[in-house]
Amino acid sequence: MAGYRIYRDGALVGSSATTAYADTSLQAATSYSYYAVAYDAAGNVSTASNTAPATTPPPDTTPPSAPSGLNAAVAGPTEVDLTWTASTDDVGVAGYRIYRNGTLVGTSLTNSYADRGLQPATSYSYLTVADDADGNSRAGSHTAGATTPAILDTTPPSAPSGVAATAFSPTEVDLSWTASTDNVRVAGYRIYRDGALVASTATTTYADTGLQAATSYRYYVVAYDAAGNSSTPSNTANVKTRHH
Could you tell me the pTM of the whole model? Predict the structure, then answer.
């Protein structure tokens, strides 16, 4: 025996080396008729099997029930843990979408979710929406609010390192450096030119423009966190702008 050919409504739709076959991509609420034919390695074909009818079920248009009992428990300055009562569905709940302040922030296959990476001393509002496998969803749960506590942070970030200054043009110097670390979070960096503050940035690069041509400058960078703690200065990078 080499295998079997499967016919749907008289037309060949597939083959199988076993005695089972999954026919997919059918229409909902539609009747079909199947039979199978066996064949061997020499190409000999058996007579057709008995005919087996099947009718696919109608599409699922019933949404799950709305999640209930949503609870938002503060787990720390940067985390809120959510739990709720599971929804029900005529077929089955596929999962839940979690919204924070009206914006989708995550999904869960269970009736719980840990929302991390939040800001300390900040209020948040949550709701959840249940979905089923056919894409039906119900209006969200009731909202639940939570406020993360403040952090008494007195630890400064580490100093930025590897500050490099490149003369991009007669009037521009491009700076880059290795990011600092902090016990909570680095909020940004202050850039100093010749000892004077010229700008701040949330990234590890900065383009200093409006400079004088063929002029030497000294740069260093200081990191700061959300609590206002500042690092010690980075290394100093010396650079001379290009001539016109």
Answer: 0.46
